[in-house]
Design a protein that fits this description.
Elements (H helix, E strand, L loop, with lengths): L13 H25 L2 H27 L14 H29 L6 H23 L6 H30 L3 H29 L9 H9 L4 E13 L2 E10 L1 H5 L3 H14 L7 E8 L11
Parallel strand pairs: 2-3
Antiparallel strand pairs: 1-2
Length: 303
Amino acid sequence: MTAEHSHAGTTTPRSRLLIAFAITASVFVIEVVGAVLTGSLALLVDAAHMLTDVIGLSLALTAAHLMNRRPSDRHTWGFRRAEVLGALTQAALLFGVGIFAFVEGIRRLFEPPEIASGSLLLFGIIGLVANVISLIVLTGGRSENLNMRAAFLEVLNDALGSVAVIISAILISTLGWYQADAVAGIVISLLIVPRTIVLIRASGSVLLEATPRGLDLAAVREHLLALPHVIAVHDLHASHISTDLPVLTAHVVVEDDYLNNGDGGALLRSLQRCVAEHFPVSVEHSTFQIEPASYEEDHLPHG
Protein backbone atom coordinates (compact mmCIF):
# COMPACT_ATOMS: atom_id res chain seq x y z
CA MET A 1 0.00 0.00 0.00
CA THR A 2 1.33 3.39 -0.91
CA ALA A 3 0.91 6.95 0.23
CA GLU A 4 0.05 9.03 -2.82
CA HIS A 5 1.61 12.47 -2.83
CA SER A 6 2.46 15.20 -5.27
CA HIS A 7 6.08 15.29 -6.37
CA ALA A 8 5.95 18.99 -7.04
CA GLY A 9 7.74 20.16 -3.90
CA THR A 10 9.25 23.63 -3.99
CA THR A 11 10.33 25.42 -7.13
CA THR A 12 13.52 27.31 -7.81
CA PRO A 13 13.08 31.12 -8.24
CA ARG A 14 14.51 31.42 -11.75
CA SER A 15 14.09 35.21 -11.94
CA ARG A 16 16.58 35.64 -9.07
CA LEU A 17 19.09 33.40 -10.81
CA LEU A 18 18.64 35.25 -14.10
CA ILE A 19 19.36 38.65 -12.52
CA ALA A 20 22.43 37.28 -10.72
CA PHE A 21 23.61 35.66 -13.97
CA ALA A 22 23.35 38.95 -15.91
CA ILE A 23 25.27 40.87 -13.23
CA THR A 24 27.97 38.21 -12.89
CA ALA A 25 28.50 37.91 -16.65
CA SER A 26 28.92 41.69 -16.91
CA VAL A 27 31.44 41.82 -14.06
CA PHE A 28 33.37 38.89 -15.55
CA VAL A 29 33.99 40.89 -18.74
CA ILE A 30 35.03 43.95 -16.70
CA GLU A 31 37.44 41.94 -14.55
CA VAL A 32 39.07 40.24 -17.53
CA VAL A 33 39.84 43.68 -18.94
CA GLY A 34 41.08 44.78 -15.52
CA ALA A 35 43.35 41.72 -15.11
CA VAL A 36 44.92 42.38 -18.52
CA LEU A 37 45.48 46.08 -17.72
CA THR A 38 46.85 45.59 -14.18
CA GLY A 39 48.57 42.20 -14.36
CA SER A 40 47.01 41.29 -11.00
CA LEU A 41 46.80 37.64 -9.94
CA ALA A 42 44.05 38.42 -7.45
CA LEU A 43 41.98 40.07 -10.15
CA LEU A 44 42.79 37.31 -12.66
CA VAL A 45 41.76 34.64 -10.15
CA ASP A 46 38.62 36.59 -9.31
CA ALA A 47 37.87 36.84 -13.05
CA ALA A 48 38.39 33.07 -13.39
CA HIS A 49 36.17 32.63 -10.37
CA MET A 50 33.61 34.85 -12.09
CA LEU A 51 33.83 32.66 -15.20
CA THR A 52 33.04 29.57 -13.15
CA ASP A 53 30.16 31.53 -11.63
CA VAL A 54 28.84 32.43 -15.06
CA ILE A 55 29.00 28.74 -15.98
CA GLY A 56 27.67 27.72 -12.58
CA LEU A 57 24.74 30.13 -12.67
CA SER A 58 23.89 29.02 -16.20
CA LEU A 59 23.87 25.44 -14.87
CA ALA A 60 21.71 26.59 -11.97
CA LEU A 61 19.28 28.23 -14.41
CA THR A 62 19.14 25.06 -16.49
CA ALA A 63 18.63 22.94 -13.38
CA ALA A 64 15.90 25.33 -12.17
CA HIS A 65 14.09 24.98 -15.49
CA LEU A 66 14.33 21.18 -15.39
CA MET A 67 13.28 20.99 -11.74
CA ASN A 68 10.08 22.86 -12.48
CA ARG A 69 9.01 20.42 -15.20
CA ARG A 70 6.18 18.13 -14.23
CA PRO A 71 6.72 14.37 -13.75
CA SER A 72 5.87 12.05 -16.63
CA ASP A 73 5.53 8.32 -17.20
CA ARG A 74 9.16 8.28 -18.37
CA HIS A 75 10.50 10.52 -15.59
CA THR A 76 8.24 9.72 -12.65
CA TRP A 77 10.09 12.10 -10.30
CA GLY A 78 10.40 14.77 -12.96
CA PHE A 79 13.90 16.24 -13.15
CA ARG A 80 14.28 16.96 -9.44
CA ARG A 81 17.74 15.38 -9.35
CA ALA A 82 18.96 18.09 -11.77
CA GLU A 83 19.28 20.32 -8.70
CA VAL A 84 21.95 18.06 -7.22
CA LEU A 85 23.80 17.49 -10.49
CA GLY A 86 23.94 21.25 -11.11
CA ALA A 87 25.22 21.95 -7.59
CA LEU A 88 27.85 19.20 -7.87
CA THR A 89 29.13 20.58 -11.20
CA GLN A 90 29.34 24.10 -9.78
CA ALA A 91 31.26 22.85 -6.76
CA ALA A 92 33.72 20.91 -8.94
CA LEU A 93 34.41 24.03 -11.04
CA LEU A 94 34.95 26.14 -7.94
CA PHE A 95 37.27 23.54 -6.46
CA GLY A 96 39.48 23.66 -9.57
CA VAL A 97 39.68 27.46 -9.43
CA GLY A 98 40.56 27.33 -5.73
CA ILE A 99 43.45 24.91 -6.28
CA PHE A 100 44.79 27.03 -9.19
CA ALA A 101 44.61 30.21 -7.09
CA PHE A 102 46.53 28.61 -4.23
CA VAL A 103 49.34 27.19 -6.41
CA GLU A 104 49.75 30.38 -8.45
CA GLY A 105 49.63 32.51 -5.29
CA ILE A 106 52.49 30.54 -3.73
CA ARG A 107 54.55 31.00 -6.91
CA ARG A 108 53.94 34.75 -7.00
CA LEU A 109 54.97 35.18 -3.38
CA PHE A 110 58.53 34.58 -4.59
CA GLU A 111 58.18 36.34 -7.95
CA PRO A 112 55.75 39.22 -7.40
CA PRO A 113 55.03 41.26 -10.57
CA GLU A 114 54.40 44.99 -10.45
CA ILE A 115 50.72 45.81 -10.12
CA ALA A 116 48.81 48.98 -11.09
CA SER A 117 47.21 49.47 -7.69
CA GLY A 118 44.86 52.30 -8.70
CA SER A 119 43.23 50.32 -11.49
CA LEU A 120 43.17 47.23 -9.29
CA LEU A 121 41.27 49.14 -6.59
CA LEU A 122 38.74 50.45 -9.12
CA PHE A 123 38.00 47.00 -10.54
CA GLY A 124 37.83 45.51 -7.05
CA ILE A 125 35.20 48.06 -6.00
CA ILE A 126 33.16 47.46 -9.17
CA GLY A 127 33.23 43.72 -8.51
CA LEU A 128 32.25 44.13 -4.85
CA VAL A 129 29.28 46.38 -5.63
CA ALA A 130 28.00 44.00 -8.31
CA ASN A 131 28.41 40.98 -6.02
CA VAL A 132 26.58 42.67 -3.15
CA ILE A 133 23.65 43.39 -5.50
CA SER A 134 23.63 39.75 -6.61
CA LEU A 135 23.74 38.56 -3.00
CA ILE A 136 20.74 40.73 -2.15
CA VAL A 137 18.85 39.26 -5.11
CA LEU A 138 19.70 35.65 -4.17
CA THR A 139 19.33 35.96 -0.38
CA GLY A 140 15.57 35.37 -0.37
CA GLY A 141 15.89 32.06 -2.25
CA ARG A 142 19.12 30.57 -0.90
CA SER A 143 17.32 28.16 1.44
CA GLU A 144 15.02 26.79 -1.29
CA ASN A 145 17.30 23.90 -2.30
CA LEU A 146 20.88 22.81 -2.95
CA ASN A 147 20.89 24.44 -6.38
CA MET A 148 20.11 27.89 -4.93
CA ARG A 149 22.54 27.30 -2.08
CA ALA A 150 25.32 26.61 -4.60
CA ALA A 151 24.47 29.75 -6.57
CA PHE A 152 24.45 31.89 -3.42
CA LEU A 153 27.75 30.36 -2.31
CA GLU A 154 29.36 31.16 -5.67
CA VAL A 155 28.39 34.84 -5.46
CA LEU A 156 29.36 35.07 -1.77
CA ASN A 157 32.83 33.75 -2.58
CA ASP A 158 33.05 36.33 -5.36
CA ALA A 159 32.19 39.11 -2.92
CA LEU A 160 34.87 37.93 -0.49
CA GLY A 161 37.31 37.72 -3.38
CA SER A 162 36.53 41.33 -4.33
CA VAL A 163 37.23 42.39 -0.73
CA ALA A 164 40.60 40.63 -0.93
CA VAL A 165 41.36 42.43 -4.20
CA ILE A 166 40.53 45.81 -2.64
CA ILE A 167 42.70 45.16 0.42
CA SER A 168 45.64 44.05 -1.73
CA ALA A 169 45.30 47.19 -3.88
CA ILE A 170 45.41 49.40 -0.78
CA LEU A 171 48.47 47.58 0.59
CA ILE A 172 50.30 47.86 -2.73
CA SER A 173 49.44 51.55 -3.02
CA THR A 174 50.40 52.51 0.54
CA LEU A 175 53.26 50.12 1.35
CA GLY A 176 54.51 49.03 -2.06
CA TRP A 177 54.09 45.41 -0.93
CA TYR A 178 53.43 43.63 -4.22
CA GLN A 179 53.20 40.24 -2.49
CA ALA A 180 49.81 41.43 -1.18
CA ASP A 181 48.32 40.48 -4.54
CA ALA A 182 49.59 36.90 -4.20
CA VAL A 183 48.37 36.74 -0.59
CA ALA A 184 44.93 37.90 -1.75
CA GLY A 185 44.89 35.13 -4.36
CA ILE A 186 45.77 32.56 -1.69
CA VAL A 187 43.10 33.93 0.66
CA ILE A 188 40.50 33.64 -2.10
CA SER A 189 41.50 30.01 -2.66
CA LEU A 190 41.24 29.26 1.06
CA LEU A 191 37.75 30.75 1.06
CA ILE A 192 36.69 28.69 -1.95
CA VAL A 193 38.01 25.18 -1.30
CA PRO A 194 36.45 24.31 2.11
CA ARG A 195 33.00 25.51 1.02
CA THR A 196 33.15 23.51 -2.21
CA ILE A 197 34.09 20.37 -0.27
CA VAL A 198 31.00 20.83 1.92
CA LEU A 199 28.83 21.26 -1.18
CA ILE A 200 30.37 18.25 -2.94
CA ARG A 201 29.71 16.11 0.15
CA ALA A 202 26.10 17.29 0.36
CA SER A 203 25.53 16.58 -3.34
CA GLY A 204 27.24 13.20 -3.12
CA SER A 205 25.10 12.26 -0.14
CA VAL A 206 21.93 12.74 -2.19
CA LEU A 207 23.32 10.94 -5.25
CA LEU A 208 24.43 7.99 -3.10
CA GLU A 209 20.93 7.89 -1.56
CA ALA A 210 22.18 8.31 2.00
CA THR A 211 19.61 8.55 4.78
CA PRO A 212 18.45 12.19 5.13
CA ARG A 213 20.46 14.02 7.76
CA GLY A 214 18.49 14.25 10.98
CA LEU A 215 16.40 11.15 10.30
CA ASP A 216 17.31 8.27 12.63
CA LEU A 217 16.12 5.05 10.97
CA ALA A 218 16.51 3.09 14.22
CA ALA A 219 14.09 5.54 15.87
CA VAL A 220 11.74 5.29 12.88
CA ARG A 221 11.75 1.50 13.10
CA GLU A 222 11.08 1.62 16.84
CA HIS A 223 8.20 4.05 16.37
CA LEU A 224 6.62 1.93 13.63
CA LEU A 225 6.92 -1.22 15.75
CA ALA A 226 5.11 0.56 18.59
CA LEU A 227 1.98 0.94 16.45
CA PRO A 228 -0.86 -1.49 17.31
CA HIS A 229 -0.87 -4.83 15.42
CA VAL A 230 2.60 -4.27 13.85
CA ILE A 231 4.83 -7.34 14.34
CA ALA A 232 7.93 -6.52 12.31
CA VAL A 233 9.46 -3.93 9.96
CA HIS A 234 12.01 -4.83 7.28
CA ASP A 235 13.46 -3.34 4.09
CA LEU A 236 13.33 0.10 5.68
CA HIS A 237 14.96 2.66 3.35
CA ALA A 238 15.08 6.46 3.32
CA SER A 239 16.79 8.84 0.88
CA HIS A 240 16.41 12.13 -0.96
CA ILE A 241 15.12 12.52 -4.51
CA SER A 242 16.17 16.18 -4.16
CA THR A 243 17.12 18.15 -1.08
CA ASP A 244 13.50 19.19 -0.47
CA LEU A 245 11.98 15.78 -1.21
CA PRO A 246 12.86 13.02 1.29
CA VAL A 247 11.25 9.62 0.66
CA LEU A 248 10.85 6.48 2.76
CA THR A 249 9.83 2.91 2.00
CA ALA A 250 9.29 -0.10 4.27
CA HIS A 251 7.69 -3.52 4.49
CA VAL A 252 5.44 -3.75 7.56
CA VAL A 253 4.36 -7.16 8.90
CA VAL A 254 1.02 -7.19 10.79
CA GLU A 255 -1.23 -9.72 12.48
CA ASP A 256 -3.25 -11.86 10.06
CA ASP A 257 -6.59 -11.14 11.72
CA TYR A 258 -6.04 -7.41 11.51
CA LEU A 259 -5.81 -7.44 7.73
CA ASN A 260 -8.65 -9.96 7.45
CA ASN A 261 -10.88 -7.46 9.23
CA GLY A 262 -10.22 -4.90 6.50
CA ASP A 263 -8.40 -2.41 8.72
CA GLY A 264 -5.39 -1.94 6.43
CA GLY A 265 -6.40 1.59 5.46
CA ALA A 266 -6.38 2.81 9.06
CA LEU A 267 -2.97 1.28 9.63
CA LEU A 268 -1.60 2.92 6.47
CA ARG A 269 -2.75 6.34 7.67
CA SER A 270 -1.05 5.72 11.03
CA LEU A 271 2.19 4.76 9.31
CA GLN A 272 2.10 7.86 7.14
CA ARG A 273 1.45 10.16 10.10
CA CYS A 274 4.27 8.48 12.00
CA VAL A 275 6.99 9.39 9.49
CA ALA A 276 5.46 12.76 8.58
CA GLU A 277 4.93 14.17 12.06
CA HIS A 278 7.19 12.58 14.67
CA PHE A 279 10.70 13.22 13.39
CA PRO A 280 12.92 16.27 12.66
CA VAL A 281 12.81 15.42 8.94
CA SER A 282 9.19 15.27 7.82
CA VAL A 283 8.75 12.57 5.17
CA GLU A 284 5.62 13.45 3.23
CA HIS A 285 6.19 10.83 0.52
CA SER A 286 6.20 7.36 2.07
CA THR A 287 5.50 3.93 0.59
CA PHE A 288 4.58 0.97 2.79
CA GLN A 289 4.04 -2.64 1.80
CA ILE A 290 1.79 -4.19 4.44
CA GLU A 291 2.18 -7.97 4.78
CA PRO A 292 0.30 -10.53 6.90
CA ALA A 293 2.36 -12.55 9.36
CA SER A 294 1.45 -15.73 7.48
CA TYR A 295 3.27 -14.47 4.39
CA GLU A 296 5.74 -17.20 3.46
CA GLU A 297 8.99 -16.67 5.26
CA ASP A 298 11.11 -17.41 2.24
CA HIS A 299 9.58 -14.38 0.53
CA LEU A 300 10.94 -12.05 3.21
CA PRO A 301 14.36 -10.55 2.39
CA HIS A 302 16.88 -10.92 5.21
CA GLY A 303 18.73 -8.04 6.83
